[in-house]
Amino acid sequence: MPSDPHPTHAPALTPTLPHKWLRISGLLLVGLFVAYLDRSNLSVGIKNISTDLGFSGEKFAGTSSLALTAFLVGYLIANFLGGFLTARIDAKWILLATVAGYSLCTVLIGFADSVGVLVALRVGVGIFEGIYWPQQFRMAKAWFDDREMSRASAMIQYYGQYLALALGFFVLTPVEASFGWRPMFWVLGAIGLVVILPLYARFLPTAPGTTTVSTAGQKSGGRLTFAAFGGWRFVLLVFSYFTNGMLFWGITLFIPLIVPTFGFATSINGLLAAAPYLVSLVLTVPMMLLADRTGRRGPIAVSGLVVGGVLLAGVAFTTNPVLQFALICLGLGYFTAAYTPNIWAIAVTDLPAHAVGPATGIINGFGAGGGGIVAGALVGALLAATGTYALGLSVLGLVAIIGGLALLLYTRMRPAAH
């Protein structure tokens, strides 16, 4: 079978850890699952929150966009700073502190009595989760070799994220409808404090589960230079993730609001909001088998942005609600299944160990945080101007296609060996 034109090799020294797939990938999967519920819960409750906090009606489009993207403001800043400021601190203790922080903020949102308090606490959730994010890949870089990185990345980042989104909207929508938005936030925050925090404290490894492990041809604790990140190639990688962030968050922030506009039965809106992520989980199996069999992570990731972008761009060209919904499901489903599991494996294997935390913070901060903020503002503005989400989704699709071309250029510029 053909091999990756840019092969990777296993580090010379990879520390051993009993049950590492369960203790690292499994635990971080569960932790990210809960973290993503904390990110997406506001989308589920925003309609009732707007009534209680006084921004329903004409104020809804602008204020809901502000509230939904407030998380991403803190997330952007914290990803940038967190990766650098925590580079010399044991990843386990940063994970513990940040889980406690964003879980407490989530509990407090349930007591919010004004838009200002809501926005401030959502920024707080974003800050703690932004510092949390790079620590996952510091763990992965230290404990898994390059041949294991696709599976480790998929378990840690992809499955935690998309299981939460697939199950979250499906489960949280009826919970919020039955008990209200405040109890929803209280319960989710409590899960982080009384379940995830003790599990991390007991089972996650401390050093050498950080980026201090030496790898072939490099020393730990190297200088954090532009060249260490990959130079201008790194800019292309960050830009591709920015377009990913726009497409992903432009849909995820608004999907519980988009689905009711199609006129389907109200009783199935929660399931329909989860449908794009269920499609993603189904498509991931063949995409991961294809990636493992061919070793061609780059082209598969490129196809995720390009094919997904083309499908989403088609939303504005039809008024049929069934076809529009199908394009959203297939577009987001294919894009995430092809792009997300592979992009982090590409990034982590390309980066030297000492740069993993800062670099993944930059990628995710600018990409998910910055891209999500731009997408939220863009979709909100086009909704206010046109009264429909269709044009905003199509614009996001076109941006994703450009991101796919940037990633293609990045893969052509990668060195033949590390």
TrEMBL record:
Keyword presence, Transmembrane helix: yes
Chief site of localization: membrane
Membrane topology: Multi-pass membrane protein
Domain Major facilitator superfamily (MFS) profile: 24-415
SUPFAM superfamilies registered for this protein in UniProt: MFS general substrate transporter
Localization, UniProt: Cell membrane
Keywords: Membrane, Transmembrane, Transmembrane helix
TM region(s), chain numbering: 60-81, 93-111, 117-134, 155-172, 184-203, 224-242, 248-279, 300-319, 325-349, 361-383, 389-410
PANTHER family (alphabetical): FI19708P1-RELATED, SOLUTE CARRIER FAMILY 17
Protein name: MFS transporter
Gene source species: Nonomuraea rosea
